[in-house]
From TrEMBL:
It comes from the Eukaryota. Transmembrane segments: none annotated. Its main location: nucleus. The keyword Glycosyltransferase applies. This is Poly [ADP-ribose] polymerase. Belongs to the ARTD/PARP family. Signal peptide: none annotated. It is an enzyme of class 2 (transferase). Keywords: Glycosyltransferase, NAD, Nucleus, Transferase. It is found in: Nucleus. The keyword Transport does not apply. It comes from Cirrhinus molitorella (mud carp). The lineage of its organism: Eukaryota, Metazoa, Chordata, Craniata, Vertebrata.
Length: 1253
């Protein structure tokens, strides 16, 4: 029977009955009879029980929910007892033990302990609830145990007086037979029936006396419940009603009252408003509770028990919850009502309500016939309305109690709902009052009555001086402005009759214009008799009218001024020019007013845009609109010739006419002073369209010049000479002009953009297909040869070749690394050694000299072409190159000056000089061009002759020293022998009878004068006081011939020139030197030397001098040459470390930052001797160097920018610097070095001057 899985066991005292199984099947399958459904019956004959198997649990539960089941078998009514099979098992096996799932418990001790711990208690549980819980579980009274509640641990400890009480009690479950229902429900009773009539009706049908039953009449349901003392009498009464004529004639119905396990608890105290508390209470005094429903608003609760007997137990006893007595009544779910027994409360009509209504509204309602409509509306709320008296009475309609679904709550809510409904109706009416003097009423009465007509109720109370209008709300609202206007006009007329005044206000045109846009007309309309007039020339507003009108208008203007926001805007210069070029008022209307923004703008001081807004918000919107709506667009003109085209002028005029009208300017087009930029300014969309049209035209017709960068100068020449036929078609149409640069590795293309771009692609393609290389010859004289006679030879040979060779000259500029548009630089080839210098004997005397290499740029169409070019160049130089040795014993006697002469020969003739010391076999080897080598050999032979003469004189001096003894005596000291050469010079001078001779002894200068005595020939020595008193001028200076300042141009190739160049290029400065001049200023020099001696004494060391650099402009050199450096000019170019004169360690710094070029692009820089002495860290604003210690007057001599790695020094005493050399140089392109047009070997300059003093 898997299809019928829901069984019920049925028991009954039916004895041996026929067809019992069928009767049970019919009964439990009937929804009407048993509330059951589809089922099968299992029954064994002779048994007093049967099993009913239902197909659905819903059918089974419906059967079990019915309070009583009675079946008729053999004319006998048999009450059936129903239960589930599981209930039988539980009744048979259960010990009655109960546990509480919500709260666990554990015994405090496994031994005989009287304490039990309750754990996991709910957060809000109270001790009263726990007491009831223990009562219910233990079946003990509160005196049999004590409890300690621990809420923070959610625990409680229960201590039983008898330890055996803590175990759960075991109870026997009694399976009781359900009681038969003894109550009958009478339905569909007449509205006017009373209890006495019902009693007689029941007596007639049941044949019982009034004491055998009781009746509870439920008039609001038109029902009554009859409860019989004998249940069998109830069953018989039901059967008799089915055949009773009067019962049927009055259409009455009767059925058995269902068994109910629900009660209603009333008068509950606030403390008992707790589900768990009520559940535990009624479980204790009644039985298991199925559901608790709280009704706090009625101080009541609905309790549903699991079994009906529990309800009977609580109804029979007096109940006190939390110390308060409560009322408990049975509740019938089918009737949705409570049975109160004989004390059922009777429903009464609520009390009459009194409300107040404005007297004028009451009169309007009564006079205009509105009362009937109100009564009809209130009747739906069971209310009669009475407005005969000033107070309105709302009376309940008796029909309220006759409503079928009337309840006590609905009756209680009647007053509230009625008042709400009445107020809603009255809200459709309104009043309006105005203070009114009789005199004013006499003027406006006719106008008011003419306006209101019969629409509203009008009342003038002269005693109170009040005019009242009453009527429908919309009518009063519509009439109120009209009445107020009538009254206001009448008041004005009355006031105007007394006096009128005229006043003036100072208002700017912009402010007046803004007021016009911000409600000026509306403000005047409020005062129709006020007359205003604005004088724009005088910036004055005239006001004529009543004083109150004028004051009100002034207040309005003042309020507007207070709320107005005014501020100058920082906007683009082009937008400013646009706003200035148009009418401010018209543009303000266009920009702001037409878009609902009450703001204007003005131009102040010719170049400031000031925006005035009526409010902060209006100002912000105006500022935002200017920044978003107006814009400017610049078009850069690459070709100004576009402006001269007639088509350009036509397009410009067309666009201006298209977007501008006589009254409205949307866009302006302007040209910069340099005529290289077009500026389009105005509204965003017109600016966009105009700039696009002009830009397209300019782009289309612009002539441009583009540069095509190539790898080398050889590529330029190859493209020009060897590829002429391939690119010449560009120039034939005159669309593109091609220019080849002879100094830079590029070519330039000029013409219209579209043609130039095509030509660029073509030339780049040609250049990409070429091979390049660089050949460097570092043989002495190679570059010189190819720049002179070899140049012509090379040109002749190249005519028949497929490649191009270009000798790289000094003024050719190379592209910086990374600027080539194609490939990587060509391979570099090198021939011979890279540097020739003097080697061998006395090597330290020789300076390093770099032979300038000859660099050739090669270009061809194949690698074989480049290889052939290299071979050709090498063969040419080899034919002109020679090596010659010079042997002479005098070479071993060369002095420092002789070595310097060799260095000069090497530099001037670009030959290699190698010196080898081998005693009598010493050798000088010369290498270079044939002509130069033989010239160098001639110079060296002359130098050898001078060495031989010098050695001869030294030998004569030695011989003289053995024959003549010379001594000198100074300051009474012992005599001292003169050296050999000095004695020789004196001997040579004596025969010539020279009166005096200058000579040096121990680095001091003396005047020697002959003195003859009888005993001997003597020479008197006198210290040269003039020389001793003053610092001597450098010995290498030229004769100044009495001039205070002389500039001496240094000879390129000289030792002095080379030393200055070396300092100049010490940090790889590649600028090209034009000339170097020695500054000879005797006064500055002597002062400088005196200061130098002073610092050496003061600082107790000689390391006080440095060679530094100072860049300047061409207009400052005369001042510096004559007067030295002037610290008064400090700060003109920066004074970060003090207010003094600045000198750089690195010439780069001076060359780039402070050497200003002249018209020829030449720059100037001084190589300066600077006495830095003892120095320290500088800082801004120093007038003098800091003191060496806090309590010392001894100052540092200078300051620097960085003590660890100084890059500049600052001096504060002008005599601490001497401008020794003025270097003129240029950046960016090389110039051929000027060579001295003299023969240095005929008049050589021997200088003992050392640059580093």
């Amino acid at each position: 029977m898997e299809e019928y899985p829901y069984p019920i066991i049925v028991e009954g005292d039916w004895g041996p009955a026929k067809n019992l199984k069928n009767k049970l099947q019919i009964y439990f399958q009937s929804k009407k009879k048993s509330q059951g459904g589809d089922c099968v019956v299992q029954y064994n004959d002779g048994s007093d029980s049967a099993t009913i198997l239902f197909k659905s649990s819903h059918s089974r539960d419906g059967v079990l929910s019915k309070a009583e089941h009675i079946i008729t078998i053999d004319s006998q009514q048999i009450t059936l007892k129903l239960y589930k099979p599981s209930d039988v098992d539980e009744q048979a096996n259960s010990t009655g033990q109960r546990t509480e799932q919500a709260c666990g418990y554990q015994e405090a001790n496994q031994s005989e302990s009287s304490d039990v711990v309750l754990e996991n208690l709910p957060d809000g549980v109270k001790q009263k609830v726990l007491n009831l819980l223990v009562d219910n579980i233990s079946t003990l009274s509160a005196n049999d145990f004590s409890m300690e509640f621990i809420p923070e641990l959610r625990k409680a400890v229960v201590t039983f007086k008898n330890p055996s009480d803590q175990s759960d009690p075991q109870t026997e479950l009694d399976v009781k037979k359900p009681q038969e229902s003894s109550a009958v429900v009478l339905e569909n009773l007449p509205d006017d029936i009373n209890k006495d009539v019902l009693i007689l009706l029941v007596e007639n049908i049941s044949r019982l006396y009034e004491n055998d039953f009781s009746i509870e009449l439920i008039p609001e349901l038109r029902n009554a419940v009859v409860t019989f003392k004998n249940p069998n009498a109830a069953e018989k009464f039901l059967n008799d009603t089915r055949t009773h004529e009067k019962f049927k004639k009055n259409n009455l119905r009767a059925h058995a009252l269902e068994r109910s396990s629900c009660v209603r608890v009333e008068n509950l105290p606030a403390e008992a408003n707790n589900k768990m508390l009520l559940e535990l209470y009624f479980e204790k005094w009644g039985g298991p509770v199925e559901e608790v429903i709280l009704i706090p608003s009625e101080q009541a609760a609905m309790i549903t028990f699991k079994e009906e007997e529990a309800k009977g137990r609580v109804l029979k006893q007096e109940n006190n919850i939390c110390g308060f007595p409560v009322k408990i009544y049975p509740y019938l779910k089918s009737l949705d009502t409570v049975l109160y027994g004989g004390n059922r409360p009777q429903l009464k009509l609520p009390e009459t309500i009194t409300v107040s209504v404005h007297p004028a509204i009451r009169e309007f309602i009564l006079n205009k016939g509105q009362i009937s409509s109100i009564k009809d509306q209130m009747s739906s709320h069971f209310c009669h309305i009475n407005m005969d008296k000033p107070e309105v009475f709302l009376c309940p309609d008796p029909a309220l109690l006759k409503q079928k679904d009337i309840t006590r709550q609905r009756i209680n809510d009647w007053s509230k709902h009625t008042i709400v409904a009445f107020k809603k109706i009255i809200s459709n009416y309104a009043t309006s009052e105005w203070p009114m003097l009789p005199a004013l009423w006499s003027k406006v009465a006719s106008d008011v009555k003419k306006v209101v007509k019969d629409q509203v109720f009008t009342e003038m109370d002269a005693s109170k001086g009040v005019l009242t209008l009453a009527g429908m709300t919309h009518e009063i609202t519509g009439l109120k402005p009209t009445i107020e206007n009538i009254l206001e006009r009448a008041k004005i007329l009355m006031e105007k009759e007394q006096n009128s005044v005229t006043e003036y206000m100072e208002i700017s045109p912009a402010m007046y214009f803004l007021l016009e846009q911000d409600g000026l007309k509306s403000a005047i309309a409020v005062s129709p008799h006020l007359h205003i007039g604005y004088n724009e020339k005088m910036n004055r507003l005239g006001l004529s009218g009543l004083q109150t009108e004028i004051l009100m208008f002034k207040n309005w203007v003042l309020e507007k001024k207070v709320t107005m926001k005014q501020k100058p805007l920082q906007i683009d210069r082009s937008v400013l020019e646009f706003l200035r070029s148009v009418d401010c008022d018209e543009m303000s209307r266009d920009l702001f007013i037409s878009h609902g923004i009450t703001a204007v703008y003005t131009i102040e001081n010719g170049d400031v845009v000031v925006v005035v807004g009526s409010t902060e918000r209006a100002f912000n919107e105006a500022e935002k609109r200017i920044n978003t709506v107006l814009t400017t667009k610049d078009l850069i003109l690459e070709d100004q010739g576009v402006l001269q085209m007639p088509e350009w002028q036509d397009l410009k005029h067309l666009l201006e006419e298209l977007f501008n009208t006589p009254k409205r300017t949307s866009v302006s087009i302007s040209l910069s002073k340099q005529r290289d930029k077009i500026t389009v300014t105005g509204f965003r969309e017109p600016v966009k369209e105009v700039s696009e049209n002009l830009g397209y035209f300019a782009e289309k017709h612009t002539r441009i010049e583009e540069t095509v960068h190539v790898k080398s100068h050889a590529v330029v020449k190859f493209l020009k000479d060897r590829k002429l036929q391939e690119w010449q078609h560009f120039t034939r149409s005159n669309e593109v002009k091609v220019s080849f640069d002879s100094k830079r590795p590029w070519l330039k293309l000029s013409g219209k953009r579209i043609f130039v771009q095509q030509a660029m692609i073509f030339f780049k393609s040609l250049a990409d297909g070429l091979y390049t290389d660089t050949l460097i010859l570092q043989k002495p004289g190679a570059k010189k040869y190819f720049m002179e006679q070899g140049k012509m030879m090379l040109a002749v040979l190249l005519k028949e070749k497929r490649f191009v060779v270009v000798l790289q000259e000094d003024d050719m500029l190379e592209e910086k690394k990374g600027d080539f548009f194609q490939g990587s630089p060509g391979r570099v080839s090198s021939s011979s050694l890279g540097r020739h210098a003097m080697q061998g004997w006395n090597q330290k005397m020789f300076s390093r000299f770099d032979i300038e290499p000859a660099a050739f740029q090669l270009c061809g169409e194949t690698q074989e072409d480049l290889s052939e070019a290299r071979d050709m160049i090498n063969s040419l130089i080899l034919r002109e190159h020679v090596i010659i040795p010079v042997h002479d014993p005098a070479i071993a006697q060369f002095t420092r000056k002789d070595v310097e002469m060799l260095n000069a020969i090497q530099r001037e003739l670009t030959v290699s000089v190698q010196l080898e010391e081998k005693g009598q076999d010493s050798l000088i080897t010369l290498e270079g061009l044939t002509r130069d080598v033989y010239t160098a050999e001639s110079c060296i032979q002359e130098l050898i002759g001078k060495v031989e003469r010098r050695e001869k004189r030294r030998c004569e001096a030695f011989l003289n020293s053995s024959l003549v003894q010379c001594q000198y005596q100074e300051n009474g000291c012992s005599a001292t022998n003169l050296d050999m050469l000095t004695k020789y010079k004196l001997k040579q001078a004596y025969p010539k009878i020279q009166p005096t001779m200058r000579m040096k002894l121990n680095k001091d200068k003396y005047l020697a004068r002959e003195e003859t005595t009888r005993q001997r020939l003597g020479i008197e020595l006198h210290r040269d006081l003039k020389v001793g008193a003053q610092s001597p001028l450098p010995s290498h200076w030229e004769d100044m011939k009495g001039q205070p300042v002389v500039l001496v141009k240094l000879i390129a190739g000289s030792k002095e020139y080379a030393d200055v160049v070396k300092e100049f290029r010490r940090t790889n400065l590649t600028s090209n030197i034009i000339e170097i001049e020695r500054v000879q200023n005797s006064a500055l020099w002597k002062n400088y030397m005196i200061k130098k001696e002073e610092l050496e004494v003061k600082n107790k060391h000689t390391n006080n001098e440095k060679l530094l650099f100072h860049g300047t402009g061409p207009d400052k050199t005369d001042q510096i040459n004559h007067h030295g450096f002037n610290r008064s000019f400090s700060g003109m170019h920066g004074a970060m470390y003090g207010n003094g004169s600045y000198f750089a360690v690195d010439p780069h710094y001076s060359a780039q930052g402070y050497s200003k070029p002249d018209v020829n692009g030449y720059k100037r820089m001084y190589l300066v001797r600077v006495l830095v002495g003892d120095f320290t860290q500088g800082k801004r604003g120093l007038p003098v160097p800091p003191a060496k210690s806090s309590n010392s007057a001894d100052l540092y001599n200078s300051v620097t920018d960085n003590m660890t790695h100084p890059t500049m020094f600052v001096i504060f005493n002008d005599v601490q610097a001497y401008p020794e050399y003025l270097i003129t140089f240029e950046e960016g392109r090389a110039r051929a070095r000027a060579r001295a047009n003299i023969n240095p070997w005929i008049n050589p300059v021997y200088s003992a001057h050392d640059l580093f003093w």
